[in-house]
Amino acid sequence: MINANDIIDMTDLTRQEVAAIAEHEHIPEMAAALRGEYELHLHHGAAHVQGMICDDIREALHKKNMIHAKELYATLHAFLAAHPEAVRGSAG
User: Fold this and answer.
1) Distances from the Cα of 91 to the Cαs of 39, 44, 51, 61, 85, in angstroms?
2) Is 24 among the domain residues?
3) Alpha helix locations (H) across the chain?
4) Is residue 62 a part of any domain in this protein?
5) Which one of 11, 18, 48, 67 has the fewest beta carbons within 10 angstroms of its own beta carbon?
6) Cα 51 to Cα 58: distance, rounded to the nearest angstrom
7) Quick check: helix, strand or coil at residue 14?
8) 3 falls in which pLDDT band (50, 70, 90)?
9) How many alpha carbons lie under 13 Å from residue 52 in its C-beta half-sphere?
10) What is the largest CA-CA distance in the chain?
11) pTM to 2 decimals?
């Protein structure tokens, strides 16, 4: 039987990226995995996912939660390495 971890493994996202989308959209991680995978296949969708992660970082900083902000920054760094088309201003 397919479970939530199997679904996440079938996406082009890491568990941390899915968690950031879930946090941003206030939805369960399963829905976030599907949403994120859908976004990645849209024109400028990777940039939209990047924006979600950046929003989460700003929110963590606003709440003075430096540990979570650092975790999200690491997530953002890994996302941009895997999805360079997400960088704002890129030709992709």
Assistant:
1) 18, 10, 17, 30, 8
2) yes
3) 4-9, 15-25, 29-40, 45-62, 66-82
4) yes
5) 67
6) 10
7) coil
8) confident
9) 25
10) 42
11) 0.90
d(CA 87, CA 5): 28
Candidates 43, 69, 45, 36; CA nearest to 55 is 69
What the block records as the tokens of 92 is: 């992709």
Q: Are 52 and 79 in contact (CB under 8 A)?
A: no
Domain count, the chain: 1
| Spatial distance between the Cα atoms of 9 and 26, rounded to a whole number of angstroms | 21
The label of the residue with tokens 């946090």 reads 23
Residue 91 is assigned to a structural domain of this protein: no
Question: Helix, strand or coil for residue 84?
Answer: helix
Look at residue 9 and tell me if it is in a domain.
Answer: yes
Question: Which residue range(s) make up the domain with 58?
Answer: 4-86
